[in-house]
Amino acid sequence: MSRPGVIAERKESVSTSGTVLSMLFQGLSLLPGIVALFAVGYAAKLISGYIHIEYILFAIAIGMVISNTVGVPAVLVPGIETYEFWLKVGIVFLGARLALQNVLGIGAKGLVLVVLEILLSIAVAKYLANLFGLSRKLGDLIGIGVGICGVSAIIGATGAIRAEEEDATYAIATILIFGAVMVFLYPLIGDLLGLSDQFFGYWAGLSIDNTAETVATGFAYSQKAGEIATITKLTRNALMGFVILIYALVYARQGLTAEVSNKGAFLWERFPKFLIGFLVFSLLATLGVFSDSEVSTFKHLSKWVFMLAFAGVGFKAQLSRMKAGLKPFLVGLGVESAVAVATFVLVALVL
Amino acid sequence: MTSVSRIPYYNLKINSYIQIDIVGIKYFSCLKPTSTWRYDITFPCCVDHNTFIGTGGIQVPKARRLLSVDWAAVLVALVVFILVKIGLVQNIPW
Questions:
Q1: Cα separations (Å) of A45 from A48, A256, A259, A310?
Q2: Contact at 8 Å (CB) between A134 and A104?
Q3: Interchain contact A297–B (C-beta under 8 A)
Q4: Can you give chain B as a three-state secondary structure string?
Q5: Is the pLDDT reported for residue B50 higher than 70?
Q6: Do A81 and B27 touch (CB under 8 A)?
Q7: How close B39 gets to chain A, by Cα (Å)?
Q8: What is the pTM assigned to this prediction?
C-alpha cells in the first residue's frame, strides 16, 4: 500500500508530464497555420518578382481571397492566429536599424498629432453614434478603436467600461474591415498625390487603426514610410492605457462601473510591452552594438516575420464581418473618413 | 506549477493561458465578463470563454499568465539577438 505522500508525488509527476505533452500538442497544432502563412507570404513574394507591386499587397489579397471564398480550414486557424505574435517580433527587430534619437524625434512630432487624432476620433464617433441611435458604449468603442489601437484597445476598453460582447464584436468588425480596405487604398492615394515617404508614413501611422494594417500599409509604400508609420502607430499604442483609464474613471464616476483601485497597475497592464523590446533594440543600435552585417540580418529577419504577419492580416479580413450591422459600419465609415481627412490636413500643416 | 494537480480544472486553465498568451489564440472568444470572470488575471481576454462556462465557472483567483504575446515576442527577439551576436544566425537573405 502506498503512502499518501507517494501518491501525491506520483500525481504531481503525471500531471506535469501531462502538461508538457499538452503544451507540445498545442505547439504542434500551430504548425499547419504557420506553414500556411509562410506559403501565402512566399507566394506573394514570388509574384511580386514578376509584377512589380509590393508583395505585401499580394500577401493580404491572397489571404482575403482564401478566407472569403473557400474559407480557412479549422486545422489552420490556431497557427494563423499567431500573426500578431510575428508582427510584434518584427517590430522589435525593426528597432535594430533605427537610432533611438530618430525614434524619439518621430515619436515626439507624432505625439502632438496623435493626441489631436484621438480626440477627433472619439468626438466624431460619439456624435455619429448618437445620430444613428447606437448605444453610448458602442460609440465609445468605435471611437477608441479608430483613435488608438484598433482591436487591442477595443478589447481593453470593453472590460474597462463593461461593454456588451455584441458591441465589441461590432466595433472590432468595423475596425478590421476598414483596415483591410486602407492597406490597398492608401498607397494608391499616396502614389496619385505623389506624397513623400515621410508624409505618407505619418498619415498612415495616424489614421489606420490596427497595428498590423498600419505597418503593412506603410511598408507597402516604402521602407522609410513603413518605419515612420510603425513608430507613429507605436506612439498611439503607448497612449492606449491612458485613454482607457480616462474612460474607466468617467464610467465609474457615473456609477456605471466599479472604481479603478490601482491606476498604476491598470496602466501597466494595458501598456504594449513589446514596445519595450523595440526601444531596447533601438538603444542598442544607437550605442553601436550592432555591426552593419548584424543590422542587415535583423532587417531581413524582420521582413520574414512581417511576411507571416501580413499573410495573417489577409486571412483575418473576412467580409462576412460586415453582417455585424449596417449602422456600426456607417458610423465607422464616418469616423474613418473624418480621421483620414483631418490627419492628412494635420500632417500637411506640420511637415 | 506545483499546485496543478491539487485543484480540479486548474491544469486546463494553465494550459489555456500558455496556449493563448503565447500566440493570441481565441482573443475574441471570451469578451463578455461573467460572474465567474476575474479581470485581474484575464486582460486582454485570454481564457477560453467556454472553458469557464463549461466547467461550471471555476475560478482561478491567483493564477497568473505565464507569458503574454508581447513578452513572448520580446523573449524570442532576445534569443535571436543572442544567436546573431554569437554568429549562429547571420547573412539571412531576403
A1: 5, 50, 50, 11
A2: no
A3: yes
A4: CCCHHHCCCHHHHHHHHHHHHHHCCCCCCCCCCCCCCCHHHHCCCCCCHHHHHHCCCCCCCCCCCCCCHHHHHHHHHHHHHHHHHCCCCCCCCC
A5: no
A6: yes
A7: 8
A8: 0.74
Q: Which candidate, A14, A34, A122, places its Cα nearest to that of A80?
A: A34
Of B17, B71, B23, the closest CA to residue B46 belongs to B17
Residue A205 pLDDT more than 90? yes
CB-CB neighbours of B90 under 10 Å: 14
Domains of chain A: 32-350 (1.20.1530)
| A72, amino acid identity | V
Put residue B48 in one of left, alpha, beta given phi > 0 → left and psi -120 to 50 → alpha. Answer: beta
pLDDT digits (tens, 9 = 90+) for A241-266: 788 888 888 887 777 666 777 778 87
Q: Please give the distance of CA A52 from its chain centroid, rounded to a whole number.
A: 27
Say whether residue B9 is in contact with chain A using an 8 A CB cutoff.
Answer: no
Which three cell numbers, joined as nine digits, stand for A209?
Answer: 487603426
| Cell 441611435 -> residue | A133
Check residue A255 and give its pLDDT.
Answer: 72
Q: B24 CA to chain A: closest CA distance, Å?
A: 6
CA–CA dist A67, A315 (Å, integer)? 5
Task: Say which residues have a Cβ less than 8 Å from residue A309's Cβ, sequence separation at least 6.
Answer: A83, A84, A86, A87, A90, A212, A215, A216
Return the amino acid letter for A111. Answer: L
Spatial separation of the C-alpha atoms in residues B27 and B30, rounded to whole Å: 7
Contact with chain A for residue B89, Cβ under 8 A: yes
CA-to-CA distance for B47 and B33, rounded, in angstroms?
A: 11
Span A225-253, average pLDDT: 85
Pick from A34, A92, A85: which is nearest to B78 by CA? A92
Q: Tell whether the model's pLDDT for residue A6 goes beyond 70.
A: no
pLDDT digits (tens, 9 = 90+) for A298-335: 999 999 999 999 898 888 877 766 565 677 777 778 88
Q: Give the residue, A162 or B63, on which the prediction is more confident.
A: A162
Q: What is the pLDDT of residues A46-100, one digit of tens each?
A: 998 888 778 888 898 899 899 889 888 888 888 888 888 898 999 999 889 888 8
SS3 A14: helix
With CB atoms and an 8 Å threshold, state whether B5 touches A8: yes
Integer Cα distance of A253 and B93 in angstroms:
56
